[in-house]
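Task: fold both queries, return tokens.
Query 1:
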Amino acid sequence: MARFLIVLLTTTWVTMRSISCSEEKGGNETTRVKVTNPDLLRLLTPEQLEIGRSLPSSPPMGTSTFHLSRLAREEIKVAKKLNELQLLLQSVMRVLNRYAMSWSELSEADVGVQGWAEHPLHAYALTKHVALGWPSIEEALLHLQEKTVVVDQLLKRRNTTGIPTEEDLTSVAGGLARAHDFYSLNLTAISQSNLRSQLSPNPVPAKIIPSVWDLYRIGKEAIRINIWSSGVDFLRNALSRYNNSLVQTLCMPSSTHSPTRCQDFDGNSHPFDKPGDMSRLPEEFQKAVKMHDQVLERKGFRTKQHSTHQKPLDKQLARKKKYHKKQVTVVGEVGSLTEGQVQYVKICRGEDLRAPNMTFNLYCRYINNSSPQFLIGLLKMEVHSLSPYVITIKGVVTPSEAKALKQTASRFLEKSSTFRYNGESEVSYQRTSSTAWLYEHNDHHLPLLTTRIERLTGLNAVQYTGSETYQVVNYGIGGHYTVHHDATASNLTYNRMATFLIYLTDVQQGGSTVFPWLGFGVKPSKGMGLLWYNMKPSGVRDDMLEHAACPVLFGDKWIINKWITYGGQLTRVPCTINEEDQVQQPLT
């Protein structure tokens, strides 16, 4: 039985880790991989689970700031080696050129093999050429041979530290498109070396300006993943830059025909980039505008699978009454999927949708929850919602603990996926991040953290009996998780009754955790814990606790989740007669 489980688990991890090599389709298509049943994973020992995690994998650079940071550090070292190799090659080439030039001058004599041997002057010239020149050749080649180790290291880079793939590039491009969709980036400011959005009046300076081809690529990727609003905006900006006199130059071909237009792409094109025929850009932009309005007409302006502008770009279509209706805010009850997505974006942009009468009784205070551990070092708690109960607690983990947990998790990061009801997992654009699953033996801080969570919440957080394993998530450029619910298991015993989320970093812009039906969001703060109850004591799911992770615009976001399961809380949170009763467990 154990052997069967190991084989099954290993097969599962191979399938999941090879997902980057499979074909991903645009639109509503997703890449699916088969995973083991979560209940089955509980039967395996930590040693058996490690078999799957020890398999080699490609780092998810497009969905993880950690791997992007590691890529930057690695590239600095590689660039230094390449510069040294380049200087050496230039020196070797100078020697080779001198030697080749010397022989070229001699060979012009055209004396033949016997002529070099029989004529004394010819013999002298040949002897001098080799006697004086060849030692320099040997010395140059020996220096080059010394660099073979460096060349071998560079050739092995793909299989050791890894390099970004085309998929990673499109993932980062899609992240920029998503950030624009949520935060309305000023694309003109981007062309002027500034990152400006609705989140802050202060621009974030950028030292690299995207080229026309970059804007075009981002726009095309946005359209591929159905972010039509960003696709149209990026293509419009690319077209404007393309038509600008600074972008295009006149060049005269060698023939006598009239001058033709040439492209220099702002001078910002990458030397290895291969821009396509930009002459079709106006046509592609008009096609995108038409498709944008068609999608808006058929599907509305925002769902989990797509987004457009709120009104058609065609002025005649924009006159329709349905595009001038006032949007209704739904707080305190569960609305439609579209309303949830709309409110998700609004809260991510910094809006608080709650009326004053919904916030007047909220409070902050210092707590110890009657635990001796916190009698001296009280923790600051803030209540964000009383019913359902949502709170934050400052200082749940220390900066040193947060650093250690990130370092441990970085070894296991994989592209995030979401579970489906049929037992499968899928990687889709509704969730863009990288995930690591940590067992308590992976880091000595984790057992201490489990005890701390138990004392703060009064719940059973022991792995397997009262909770799942720890999940650490690192978000990449534009990394997000759309509106979802944590309690999705079909087995009541193992369903996620409560979520204890801890922020391991601050995030400069974006990255908030938002609750669309409660009307507020929580901004990441290093060491802070966020607690809510996904289920009621009766075992009924509380749909008001649907939540989402806002795209990260600027910064590095890490979180660690502890999901506390229903079956382990029977003595901690007694079942109530009324299935609609909320968990009323204010900390003291």
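Query 1 returned. Query 2:
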Amino acid sequence: MDEYRLKGSFSMNCHTSLCLVLTMVQLWPCFLSTQTHAIQNTDQPFSAARRVKRGWVWNVFFVEEEMNLTEPVYVGQLKSDLDKEDSTFKYILTGEGAGSIFTINETTGVLHVIQKLDREKKALYTLRAQAINRNTQLPMEPESEFVIKVKDINDQRPQFLDGPYEATVPEMSPEGTSVIQVTATDRDDPYYGYNARLLYSIIQGQPYFSVEPKTGVIRISSETDRETQEKYFIIIQAKDMIGQMGGFSETATVTINLSDINDNAPKFQHTLYHMTVSEAAPLGTTIGKIMADDSDIGENAAMNYVIEGDASYVFDIITDNETQEGVVILKKKVDYETKRKYSIKAKVINRHTDERFLNEGPFEDSTLVRITVEDADEPPVFTSQEYVMEIAEGSESGSFVGAVNASDPDNTNSPIRYAIVHGMSLKRLFSINAQNGTIIITKPLDREITAWHNITVTATEARNPEQISEAPVYIHVLDVNDHAPEFPEYYETYVCENAEPGQLIQTISAVDKDDSVEGHHFYFSLQEETTNNSGFSVRDNQVFVLAILALRQQRKKSLFSEKAEEFRENIVRYDDEGGGEEDTEAFDIAALRTRTVMREHKPRRNITTEIQSLYRQSLQVGPDSAVFREFISEKLKEANADPNGPPYDSLQTYAFEGTGSLAGSLSSLGSHVSDMGESYDRLSEWGPHFKQLAKLYCPHKTARD
């Protein structure tokens, strides 16, 4: 089989020719392999033909970019060994740019480029060539593919695609600290010559910064101080052809900001400050301001002000976080007459410190503040914040109570005038001497009405009435024994007709409106006429409010000897047992008596036993019961038949519990009949609620028990 012979004509310098020769030697085995593979693939349609071993096939052409073409430029030639140059062969070109960029001579197979090429737009073109019989249009050679590469020239400048650049680095960073990396690109062929080989250099920014030539990394090359210069503008250049003459270059601007670190101590603007304060100034008054400067910024410049020494008890200093000033305020009242000048030491300290600079000294500063106290017209000052006085009740009008005293603290020593304020009622009771502050009463006082009087006294400067002070005065009215003891209530006592001599029937007490430190001691006794004509006696316990009434041991002879034991009987209701029982009514015997009915003079019969029987039955019934009515009727008949009866009659429920009571009676009436042998000692064990019953039912117990 015939083979193509590709001939190319290239115009290149010796250096380029040497490179192509070396490339051909290195690619020679590949070309042989490619040729063999191509023959095997293309010989199949012509299997009947005689096989001829092919040599190598040169299948790459080169065309230089950016050529200014005025006419077609020769690229190479495609030619078959079978071509006898008799115009039988026809060469056909297809593929990228065929006919528009590249042309072929149909007879000779010569290739031409007819347009200017740009490698940065398209670096290579793939085309196909075939030889056919011009007459029969049959293939004379199988179709073969080849490549035309666009040879690069240095026609592109480097570009910084990410510029301009900006970076921040802490001030005082050590040398070699990386700041930022800049990168430029070159569209030329990086694999052909040095057209795209870049080299970085610094044009502006030395000696503080440097750049690595190959990587474009910018580094610190000298110590930087933000307080001296906080921003740097540097210029970096990128040049191709590894920086050689004739190469293209481009520059980029890099802005480098220095961030602050706390490498400076605060310093006061003045070594001495003068301030004044009035002695009348209230607590918290702003006296003045001090200021320290710090070259740092932000939190590195934050500072605190403090006062050292004993002056911190009188003055304080507050840091204004917005202005970074120290505000001196009054912490304790000052007195011009006591101390007129203060000298305080103020100190300022950084809130945040950097350990790297601690060895350079403390980050603080001190200054002196002198404060002068100015005199002010002050109100009078009482000798005591409050006064407590005493006077006996009943003292005559004009009696001395006490005296208050105030003075002018100023050097003028103005006279003082006193007065009582707050309430006309107090003014009617007390009076004060305007010159000397003596307080007297204007009318007698009664402790039992008011034991304490609270008044307010004012002291006013005579020369300046606006200067006024107040002081409370507490007046205690002392007690005088001017009240007799009194019984707190009216006592009405009932006693059973069968009460034993010496039995406790009533406890009384007394009160006294007067006051007593050790407690009152009362003496109880019966009136003389009562003692002589009564069957009762009083046992004086000589305690605070306790007295005892008891029956005498002997009974006086009854005025009604006929039936002394039935002289009078009262029925009284007791309500003292507690809840659950219904109230009962009191019955007036007068309502049951008929005045118009003549009494029948019948001999009296002994009905005591009958009445006692009816009485016991009536304990379990109500006033509407027939038994109760019979009992009342019998008692009425007995009273009507008694010629010695008094001119009055009364009837009260005495031993009758309320209707519906399930507890029964606790009365002592009738106890001599049914409960004479009963022992009530256990009542003493039931607690204080049964103490009174225990006294009534246990007469053998002493009053002390």
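Both queries returned. Flag for query 2: The mean pLDDT is 77.
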